[in-house]
Amino acid sequence: MSTSIFTALPIVAAHYGRKFGIEVKVGLSSNPKTDGKVIYLPDTNSERVWGLLIHEAAHIRLTSFDKIPRHPLIHAMTNIIEDIRIETAMMKEFPGTRTDFELVMQSWMDSGFYPLVSIDRSPAEILELFVMYFGYTFLCQYNTKHLYDSAEIALEKNFPLGLVTRLKVQVRKISSCSNTDECIRLAESILKIIEEARDEQSKGNQETFDGTAGNDTADNQSFVQNLSALCNSKESDFRMDSYTQLREELTAQQTHDTHQNVVENVGCPLQIPAKQTQELLAGENLLDEVKYLSNRLSAQLRTAVEAFNRSKRMKAATGRRINNKMIAKVVTGATQIFIKKNAKRTGIDTAVHLTVDLSGSMADNAKCDIAIRASMAISSALESIKGVEVTVNYFQDKFVIQVLPSHSSVKSRAGYFDVPSDGGTPMAEAIWEGAFELSLSNAQRHIMIVITDGAPSNHNAVLDVVARCITANIEMVGIGIKADAIKKYISNSIVIHDVDELTGTLFSAMKNKLVMAA
């Protein structure tokens, strides 16, 4: 089976978003970024985007954004220490993320962005690469020991031995940092010991001029210059942040027009409306009202599946059951008079997702009521068939509303089906979300039913995502409510003007799909 939709960026991003409990939006921004609440990703085929996604998710989950150190050295050290802290924390909580982080790290080493450290690099670069490589090597346990060794040599050549020793003590404390504040305090302590070393070395340099110290005057002068450069450093003295570099590279590698294929809500937490007792009771009453319809649909579909299974029998020359229709042909020499069943069947094993339009236009002519009753009757009928899993989402304005999650019964969720219509028609986003729901199922076959009354907010985006679904063997069924606009996007579509019409029209559309699955 082709998995073009299931491995598409929005679907995998949705998996990560749900896993980490954060909101991910794909294609809305040309520059990957986070505002502390939402992660925005460009539409790109680069596998390195997962490392960026996990890194930004770690910041949202673990970083405090309200404190930004002003001193350039403290700022740079805090960023490095915090990155190391959150990456080790994510790998500990989600071990599978290590592969994504290592892929990004290898790409940086291959491109030369993480180089061996020569002794003639600037003091700021030597310090930041030493701290970074220490964390990556001994805490994150990446394959960077050769980089750390080069940084250690460069540090020892450019700074006093006493400071090098104290710096090694400080970087070992990274493993004990449990929050952003502690990372800032550790960065402040690094600046403090550098300032102390500068003052001590300046005093030692003066003693040399007085003739009371040894003959390391040239080294002392070099050390003082390097230490002073660190204490008086500017932001431009430090390297570009690793993930800033990655964001720029991913921006340049975008593969789709973000204005045409906008995916707004894939990966964001689904809206789960709070329900009062009276609303739950109203849902139960609604379920009672459509019970007759769901029972008829269920009976029709079960009968079709059972009839198909009975018909799939083969003639055989041996067996235990005689085919009564063949007995009369024995006199003509017929030998295949026994019944032999086809190879053992695995059952229906199908996941069905309903995505239902409850936009503002659905309020006209009782269309909202028809859509709600239809979704409830269909899901109730399907869940009664062995081997069928059913999930239901509504979409309206800029939200996708979870109505029937997986492994839930319609009866237990009846109160959640009754939702007022509102806003626009984000059909593309809803279909993406539906594909995500289907991707969570291990069923052999996937069917999506889209119920709507009109045109979507984004014509091209719907055509794109429907094509992806079809390529991935998601079978699409459309139900138009008093309108046939859905036929422009899903060829296998029906139109109903009343919920009772489902027993005829939907049965025709669904029978063959379930029979093929049996």
| Overall number of structural domains | 3
Main β-sheet: number of strands, strand sense, barrel status?
6 strands, mixed
Name of the CATH first level of the largest domain:
Alpha Beta
- Helix tally equals 15
* Low-pLDDT residue spans: 206-215, 255-270
CATH structural fold name of the largest domain:
Rossmann fold
Rg estimate, integer Å: 32 Å
Q: Hey, roughly how much beta strand do the residues contain?
A: 5-15%
Task: Compile the SSE list and pairings.
Blueprint: H1 9-20, E1 23-26, E2 33-34, E3 38-41, H2 49-62, H3 72-93, H4 97-111, H5 123-139, H6 145-158, H7 161-171, H8 180-209, H9 217-231, H10 242-252, H11 277-311, E4 313-316, E5 338-341, E6 350-357, H12 367-383, E7 388-396, E8 399-404, H13 427-439, E9 445-452, H14 459-471, E10 474-481, E11 493-496, H15 502-517
Parallel strand pairs: 1-3, 6-7, 6-9, 9-10, 10-11
Antiparallel strand pairs: 2-3, 4-5, 7-8
How would you describe the overall organization of this protein?
- The protein has 518 residues and is α/β, with parallel strands linked by helices.
- The chain has 3 domains: 69-99 and 116-240, no CATH class; 277-305 and 346-517, 3-Layer(aba) Sandwich (Rossmann fold), CATH 3.40.50.410; 313-341, no CATH class.
- 49% of the residues lie in helices and 12% in strands.
- It is built from 15 helices and 11 strands.
- It has helices at residues 9-20, 49-62, 72-93, 97-111, 123-139, 145-158, 161-171, 180-209, 217-231, 242-252, 277-311, 367-383, 427-439, 459-471, 502-517, and strands spanning 23-26, 33-34, 38-41, 313-316, 338-341, 350-357, 388-396, 399-404, 445-452, 474-481, 493-496.
- The strands form 3 sheets. The chain has a 6-stranded mixed sheet, with helices on both faces.
- α1 packs parallel to α2 (49-62), α8 packs antiparallel against α9 and α11 (277-311) packs across α15.
- The radius of gyration is 32 Å and the shape is elongated.
- The model is unreliable at 206-215 and 255-270 (pLDDT under 50).
